[in-house]
Backbone:
């Protein structure tokens, strides 16, 4: 990919009108594909986590447990924690969804996805995560993980979406962030005490499940697992298709 082609927003200036149709096609394909999956939980975390690391194993087992509770599992479709969660979901016979993003270094979807939707635009992808998730489970990660975390709690705080569990997994990893939010952001009045209640922290799979169960999400827990749909890839809609 050429250097000047990777900046998607800047590229709008030359072909704004035609880009609208690509954006529309991503929304439509995402809505059509994900509207049939039933209750789902999104799992986020570092793409740099490797098999055998504690976070990889935890994500895999967590996804297996969530499938047993009747949830589909949604990830960003890439390697690391995302791959582990998709692996766990597929091993448990559940619906394993990957919302892959096209990046300059060409992130490839991991091989454990049963339902794949690919996106060029981050904002289209973000809508799908928020719209079709009953909970966000956040394992240790970098900027991308933090982006999804703060996007979700901002939408909940501003009442743009109905509240759902946002669970930080790994107390030691997230302790510094939580302390900074309390000591700096909360103490200076930038957020209110009830805003801190949006975030939950857990170390174990049992703790994560308990948080989700206590949030009273209807028609999710202990529901039967549906058969896996065939894998689908995002394709631009053909002219005239309705």
Residues:
């Amino acid at each position: 990919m050429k250097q000047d082609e990777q900046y998607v927003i800047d590229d709008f200036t030359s072909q704004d009108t035609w880009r609208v149709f690509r954006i529309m096609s991503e929304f439509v394909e995402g809505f059509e594909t994900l509207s049939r999956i039933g209750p789902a939980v999104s799992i986020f975390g570092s793409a740099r986590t490797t098999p055998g690391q504690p976070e990889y194993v935890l994500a895999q087992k967590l996804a297996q447990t969530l499938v047993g509770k009747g949830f589909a599992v949604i990830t960003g479709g890439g390697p690391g924690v995302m791959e582990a969660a998709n692996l766990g979901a597929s091993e448990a016979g559940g619906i394993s969804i990957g919302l892959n993003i096209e990046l300059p270094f060409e992130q490839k979807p991991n091989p454990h996805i049963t339902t794949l939707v690919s996106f060029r635009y981050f904002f289209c992808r973000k809508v799908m995560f928020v719209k079709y998730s009953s909970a966000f489970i956040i394992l240790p990660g970098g900027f991308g993980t933090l982006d999804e975390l703060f996007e979700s709690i901002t939408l909940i705080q501003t009442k743009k979406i109905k509240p759902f569990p946002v669970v930080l997994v790994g107390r030691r990893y997230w302790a510094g962030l939580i302390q900074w939010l309390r000591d700096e952001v909360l103490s200076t009045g930038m957020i209110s005490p009830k805003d801190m209640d949006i975030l939950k922290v857990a170390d174990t799979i049992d703790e994560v499940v308990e948080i989700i169960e206590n949030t009273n999400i209807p028609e999710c827990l202990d529901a039967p697992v549906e058969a896996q749909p065939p894998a689908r890839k995002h394709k631009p809609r053909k002219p005239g298709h309705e």
Q: What stands out?
A: Confidence is low (pLDDT under 50) at residues 217-242.
